[in-house]
Every structure is written in structure tokens, then in C-alpha cells.
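Support request from a user on the community tier.

User writes: "When I paste my C-alpha cells into the form, the page sometimes reloads and wipes my input. The last time it worked, I copied everything first. Here is what I submitted, just in case something in the input itself triggers the reload:"
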């Protein structure tokens, strides 16, 4: 009979134990702490240190077995909650979770409360309560339900009516239809002006300056007006057609650059590389040298020296020319000055012509 090793028998028994389906009954030395509102289970039992120190498939199998046991205990606690059928007797079985006990941290800060609009402030001051009104009303003339406002509204457009009433005291020869059309155009223009004022108030940091009526606009003014016009839509210009040289990214409300942040959960290898590169730069004794920046600085210095030398040469040439032009002028000026001095030295009565009596 061949000899059988004890290690082989234990390995075979362990393999059979892993293949055998595990029971739903899990025994723990210390009872777990449950927070069913967050579907959270805390295991206070210390894991076996010897199994975690080992590297390889044994460590992974131990961790999976530990996670499986804790998940089984959590599922058993969920089945103890009162349950009911959703959507009738044929619906799924659901259980109502209790209120969470642990306050989990948020990934991002809570949003700030929206400031009240001017109408909300006015309504709160006057005690006006919002009443929901239906958008459809019954039109007696058309005998159908129509919109309260806008195109094909109830009552029709007075400017398109076939009959217009002449007010008392009005000129009988005045065209009332033209008067109604003119009043409608004024209302449309007033609404458009209010809409533009609302847009200017909403985009106050990047308000468009008034354009010159003669069309002498600078590039900055045209760019600012185009940006404000683009973000005036409901989608902030995301679905508007772009200009030939306009960037693909839609502009923001304030006209600044949009800040981009790295995702909190993402590529761990890339994050590790960025941190190591930062630590390597901090620990290095030699400062990091930017070749492009150094070359550009050297080129600027050379250009400045060349411009300064060229300016000195032009200044010297100009001085030589002025000296040559001043030499003959000094001689003539000296002669004139000497003649004037001789005239002053002559007595008042000796020189000049005498008057005849």
C-alpha cells in the first residue's frame, strides 16, 4: 500500500470544504454593529494576522470569505425587517429601512440656497401668495379650449379682428385697425426691452457695453457682445452654432476660464505618478530648469541689447549732424552780435542821419 502524506489529505479536505455550499448561519465571537439605514455592517472581530501577512491566493480567499460572512449577516438582518408586497400581490417583496444612524461624509459641499428674485422679494413684502392657474381656458367664440397666453390664445388677437369698436370721442375717420397694430408693436418692443434688461441684470459681471452707432467697435467690445449673446439662451450657448474661429468649449457666464478638477475616484497609477513627481521635485537639490523659458529669456535679452546699441548709433549720428549745422550759424551769429554791440557803443547824436530843420 502506497504511503499517503498528511499534507495531501489536508489539501484535499480543504478543497472539498471550499466546494461545499456554505451555510447561512455564521458564528462570530463579537456581534457585528449594524446600520440598516445605510446598509452598513461593522465587524469588531480582529482578522487573523497570519493569513493577512501572506501574499498570494490564500490571502485573497481569506478576505473573500470574511466579506461573504459579513454580507450574510447583513442580509439576515434585512430579512428580519417588516416586509410588504409592492404593486399588489404579484409585486416584489420590499422592506422599509429604518433611519440611518451614522452620518456619512459628503463628496461635495451642500449647495448654497438660491437668492430670492425681485418678484419673490416683492411678493413676500406684499403678502402675495402664488396661485397655480391652468394654461388652458374656454373660448366662447371658438367653442374650444385654448391657451391663456401666446399664439392662438383665447379671445383671439384684437389686432387681427374683423371688427373694431370706435371709442367715444375719437375721430371717426381714424383707422382703428392701424391703431391696434401700432399698440401691439409697442407692447412687443416694451417686452423685448424688459427681456434685455433682465439679461443685463443676470449677466452683470459680463454686461455688454453699448456699441457705437457708427459701427466703430473694437475687437474686445465685439467679443464681449458675442459672448453675452451666446450665453443668453436656456442652455448657455451649448447647442448654438459656433463661429469659424470660436473655441469648441462654450463660454461661461462671467467670461472667465472654467476650473477643472481631477476626479476623486479614478486612475490610482496616474495620481501616484503625480505625487511622486511632486516629491521628487521638492527633494531635488538642483532647481528644475525650463529650457523653453530660459531660451526665450536669452533671446529677449539679446534683442534688447541689439536695440539699445542701434539706438546709441542713431543718437551719435544725430549729434554729428547737429554739430555740422551749428558751426556756420555760430559765425554769422557772432558777426551780427558784434555789429549790434558796435551800434550800441556809438553815441546817440554822432551816428545816423540828421534831420533837416
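"...and here is what came back when it finally went through:"
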Amino acid at each position: 500500500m502506497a504511503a499517503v502524506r498528511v499534507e495531501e489529505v489536508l489539501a484535499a479536505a480543504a478543497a472539498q470544504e471550499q466546494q461545499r455550499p456554505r451555510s447561512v448561519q455564521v458564528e462570530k465571537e463579537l456581534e457585528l454593529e449594524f446600520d440598516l439605514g445605510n446598509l452598513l455592517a461593522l465587524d469588531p472581530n480582529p482578522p487573523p494576522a497570519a493569513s493577512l501577512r501572506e501574499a498570494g491566493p490564500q490571502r485573497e480567499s481569506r478576505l473573500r470569505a470574511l466579506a461573504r460572512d459579513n454580507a450574510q449577516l447583513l442580509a439576515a438582518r434585512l430579512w428580519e425587517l417588516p416586509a410588504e408586497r409592492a404593486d399588489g400581490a404579484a409585486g416584489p417583496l420590499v422592506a422599509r429601512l429604518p433611519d440611518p444612524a451614522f452620518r456619512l461624509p459628503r463628496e461635495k459641499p451642500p449647495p448654497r440656497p438660491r437668492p430670492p428674485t425681485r418678484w419673490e422679494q416683492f411678493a413676500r413684502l406684499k403678502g402675495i401668495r402664488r396661485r397655480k392657474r391652468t394654461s388652458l381656458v374656454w373660448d366662447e367664440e371658438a367653442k374650444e379650449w385654448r391657451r391663456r397666453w401666446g399664439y392662438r390664445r383665447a379671445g383671439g388677437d384684437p389686432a387681427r379682428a374683423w371688427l373694431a369698436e370706435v371709442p367715444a370721442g375719437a375721430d371717426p375717420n381714424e383707422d382703428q385697425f392701424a391703431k391696434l397694430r401700432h399698440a401691439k408693436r409697442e407692447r412687443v418692443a416694451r417686452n423685448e426691452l424688459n427681456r434685455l434688461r433682465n439679461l443685463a441684470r443676470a449677466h452683470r459681471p459680463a454686461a455688454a457695453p453699448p456699441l457705437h452707432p457708427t459701427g466703430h467697435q473694437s475687437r474686445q467690445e465685439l467679443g464681449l457682445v458675442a459672448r453675452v449673446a451666446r450665453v443668453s439662451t436656456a442652455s448657455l450657448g451649448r447647442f448654438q452654432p459656433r463661429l469659424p474661429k470660436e473655441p469648441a468649449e462654450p463660454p461661461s457666464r462671467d467670461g472667465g476660464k472654467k476650473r477643472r478638477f481631477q476626479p476623486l475616484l479614478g486612475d490610482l497609477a496616474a495620481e501616484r505618478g503625480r505625487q511622486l513627481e511632486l516629491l521628487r521635485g521638492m527633494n531635488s537639490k538642483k532647481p528644475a530648469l525650463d529650457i523653453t523659458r530660459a531660451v526665450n529669456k536669452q533671446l529677449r535679452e539679446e534683442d534688447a541689447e541689439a536695440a539699445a546699441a542701434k539706438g546709441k548709433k542713431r543718437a551719435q549720428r544725430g549729434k554729428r549732424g547737429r554739430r555740422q549745422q551749428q558751426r556756420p550759424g555760430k559765425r554769422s551769429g557772432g558777426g551780427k552780435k558784434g555789429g549790434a554791440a558796435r551800434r550800441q557803443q556809438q553815441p546817440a547824436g554822432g551816428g545816423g542821419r540828421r534831420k533837416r530843420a
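Agent notes: The reload is a front-end session timeout and is unrelated to the input. The radius of gyration is 46 Å. Strands lie at 33-35, 40-42, 83-85, 93-95, 136-139, 144-147. Escalated to web team.
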